[in-house]
């Protein structure tokens, strides 16, 4: 049932190209419009939205962080992302023109469900992104966009995360189109770029031997730090979460710009720092900022593991280990940059002798608050 893989997690990582393709299937109409499923919200409802909240837990929350960048950029609507367990206890300001997007692989996460109910009590519109048909969260929402990732068995979320990203992009594009901020052809251009990501990902997955070797080298490290900017920041958080969850190692993700405000003191001789580098195309400034952060940590002895785009010819000079990913537009890059971090965590955990699919103290679906 593991399809020849040692762990469900490795099988599910390998299924990611197909999971993305399935989630994209049939979403673009002939007129270039995005088609969502079970959307019991009218276009007028979506035009009336004046603020978006994205609410989730764990890995799904990291997808929500990426969604914020995409939604604000494409729709020009203010978008806040928040942990479900924090959201309803701080008296958030919601009304009928607020769109609340809840993200949950299982559809049964109690914190997310309680946040959803709170949002509905305040009359907000709720749209769920979910991987499990007929589960509680989509049943209680006004609209649903299912991620067609197929069942995810490993406790660590992998293919669900990438398909959640795809769903967030689709919702952002749909909102932008309905609200007249993007034209159908602009939306179709992003969708067709998304449609190329499964092939790009297959190419990336075929070449992960270096990451496996690196995992064996890092298995005894006392800590591993992850840094990124913009959408690379949630990717850094996700890489650190995977490592904590599976390898029981200390790991932390930071916004690279925050290093000098404290965390840089953690860097000692040989401290591994995984650096997620933005594309040099489009937002070269961002990429250059991360490169200077890499130089800063290196100057303090860090061992740098750099995830960068193919064709970024100069970044290698700052990398003790360079992992390249296919070229992808900035907002879509997490579909690529996350994957080596999933494999790194999985392989480090395996090298440390842990049960990769069933980490201690964790459940696949967290149905208590
Ligand atoms: O089913 P959900 O997406 O609501 O689950 C949320 C988190 O519990 C989940 O993503 C958790 O963080 C994963 N085990 C991370 O790999």
Q: Helices and strands in order, then pairings?
A:
Blueprint: H1 8-14, H2 16-24, H3 43-48, E1 51-56, H4 58-75, E2 79-83, H5 84-87, E3 98-104, H6 110-121, E4 125-130, H7 136-140, E5 143-146, H8 159-178, H9 184-195, H10 197-205, H11 209-218, E6 223-228, H12 232-247, E7 250-255, E8 272-276, H13 284-299, E9 303-309, E10 321-325, H14 334-351
Parallel strand pairs: 1-2, 1-3, 3-4, 4-5, 6-7, 6-8, 8-9, 9-10
Give an overview in words.
The active site is at 364 (for fru-6p isomerization activity). Its EC number is 2.6.1.16. Catalyzes the first step in hexosamine metabolism, converting fructose-6P into glucosamine-6P using glutamine as a nitrogen source. This is Glutamine--fructose-6-phosphate aminotransferase [isomerizing]. Residues 42-181, 214-359 form the SIS domain. With 369 residues, the chain is α/β, with parallel strands linked by helices. The protein contains 14 helices and ten strands. It has helices at 8-14, 16-24, 43-48, 58-75, 84-87, 110-121, 136-140, 159-178, 184-195, 197-205, 209-218, 232-247, 284-299, 334-351; strands at 51-56, 79-83, 98-104, 125-130, 143-146, 223-228, 250-255, 272-276, 303-309, 321-325. The strands form two sheets. A five-stranded parallel sheet has the order 2-1-3-4-5, sandwiched between helices. Strand 4, helix 7 and strand 5 form a beta-alpha-beta unit. Helix 11 packs across helix 14 and helix 12 (232-247) packs parallel to helix 14 (334-351). The longest helix has 20 residues, at 159-178. It is globular. The two termini are 32 Å apart. The structure holds 5-amino-5-deoxy-1-O-phosphono-D-mannitol. 5-amino-5-deoxy-1-O-phosphono-D-mannitol binds at residues 57-60, 104-106, 109, 112, 155-157, 245, 365-366.
């Amino acid at each position: 049932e593991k399809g020849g893989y040692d762990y469900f997690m490795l099988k599910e990582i390998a299924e990611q190209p197909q999971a993305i393709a399935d989630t994209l299937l049939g979403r673009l109409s002939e007129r270039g419009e995005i088609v969502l499923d079970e959307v019991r919200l009218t276009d007028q409802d979506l035009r009336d939205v004046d603020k978006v909240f994205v609410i989730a837990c764990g890995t799904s929350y990291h997808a929500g962080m990426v969604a914020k960048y995409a939604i604000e950029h494409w729709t020009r609507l203010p978008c806040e992302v928040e942990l479900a367990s924090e959201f309803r206890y701080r008296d958030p300001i919601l009304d009928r023109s607020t769109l609340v997007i809840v993200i949950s692989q299982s559809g049964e996460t109690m914190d997310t469900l309680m946040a959803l109910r709170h949002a509905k009590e305040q009359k907000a519109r709720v749209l769920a992104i979910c991987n499990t048909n007929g589960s509680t969260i989509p049943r209680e929402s006004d609209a649903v966009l299912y991620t067609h990732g197929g069942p995810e068995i490993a406790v660590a979320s992998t293919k669900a995360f990438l398909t959640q990203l795809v769903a967030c992009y689709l919702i952002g594009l749909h909102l932008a189109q309905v609200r007249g901020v993007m034209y159908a052809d602009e939306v179709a251009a992003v969708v067709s770029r998304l449609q190329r990501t499964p092939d790009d990902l297959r190419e990336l997955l075929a070449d992960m031997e270096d990451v496996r070797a690196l995992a064996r080298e890092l298995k005894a490290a006392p800590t591993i730090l992850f840094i990124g900017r913009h959408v690379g920041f949630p990717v850094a958080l996700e890489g650190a979460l995977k490592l904590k969850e599976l390898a029981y190692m200390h790991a932390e993700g930071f916004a690279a710009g925050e290093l000098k405000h404290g965390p840089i003191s953690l860097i000692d001789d040989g401290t591994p720092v995984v650096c997620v580098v933005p594309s040099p195309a489009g937002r070269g400034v961002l990429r250059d900022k991360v490169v200077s952060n890499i130089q800063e940590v290196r100057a303090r002895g860090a061992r740098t593991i750099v995830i960068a785009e193919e064709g970024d010819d100069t970044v290698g000079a700052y990398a003790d280990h360079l992992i390249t990913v296919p070229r992808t537009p900035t907002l879509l890059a997490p579909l690529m940059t996350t994957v080596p971090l999933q494999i790194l965590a999985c392989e480090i955990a395996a090298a440390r002798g842990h049960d990769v699919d069933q980490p201690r103290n964790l459940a696949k679906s967290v149905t208590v608050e």
